[in-house]
Amino acid sequence: MDDLIEGYRRFRAGTWQTERRRFEALSRLGQRPRALIIACSDSRTDPQMVFNARPGELFVVRNVANIVPPYGPDEKPHGVSSAIEFAVRSLAVREIVVLGHAMCGGIKALLDGAPVEASDFVGQWVRIAEPARQRAMQAPPEMRQDMCEHESVRLSLDNLMTFPWIKDAVEAGHITLHGCFFDIRSGILERLGADGAFHPIPD
Q: Which of 80, 95, 159, 175 has the fewest CB atoms within 10 Å distance of its CB?
């Protein structure tokens, strides 16, 4: 905990001082993020850092393997879907980005099975992305991890379109969906193009 406290002190001495007026405005006026980012919980890929965003600019939802479940309201709790609903219906974001990344442990669990020490919830969660795994299994073994990481982004984008109020907003031109992939080894961000392939974004 001591190192976290030291980080807080650096925040107070640095970021808080430079962004203080922005925080004060956000506290008075409320948040108006321009984008919803659905990313992985992996500690090595921070959407705020990748997009160099300032406080209040991004509404971020993080979970294992950046998975969006299909629309399916019922009496059970739905953490990811509730965050998506709040961002879209209450905050009226105009952009939704699904951000995948290289060397994803959640995707590895999808391909190889959840580790024994994380078997209560992880295995059931990543099975939502089973269609991505099936597509990746058609590739040579050495390419399956990378392919499944990219396929999971495509699947989450497809699942977003099962939410009726997202589908309506996309078709009306009020919301745009984007797929991105961050390679933590190179720092390169790829974007899903209209041709269905991921392309590196030039510096």
A: 95
Q: How many other β-carbons are positioned within 10 Å of the β-carbon of residue 153?
A: 28
Q: Over the stretch 107-164, which tens digit does the pLDDT of each residue have?
A: 999 999 998 898 899 999 999 999 999 999 999 999 999 999 999 999 999 999 999 9
Instruction: Please enumerate in sequence order all residues whose Cβ is within 8 A of that of 61, keeping only pairs 6 or more positions apart, or say none.
Output: 36, 37, 38, 39, 80, 83, 84, 87
Claim to verify: residue 109 and residue 17 sit in the same structural domain: no
Residues 93 and 119 both lie in one domain: yes
- Give residues with Cβ within 8 angstroms of 37, minimum separation 6: 47, 51, 58, 59, 60, 61, 97, 99
Q: What is the CA radius of gyration of the chain?
A: 18
Q: Please indicate, yes or no, whether residues 103 and 7 belong to a single structural domain of this protein.
A: no
Q: 11 and 95 in one domain?
A: no
Model pTM greater than 0.90?
A: yes
175 and 95: one domain? yes
Looking at residue 94, what DSSP letter applies? S
Q: How far apart are the C-alpha atoms of 100 and 82, rounded to whole Å?
A: 20
- 80 and 160 share a domain? yes
**Residues 19 and 94 reside in one and the same domain:** no
Residues in the chain where the model's pLDDT stays below 50: none
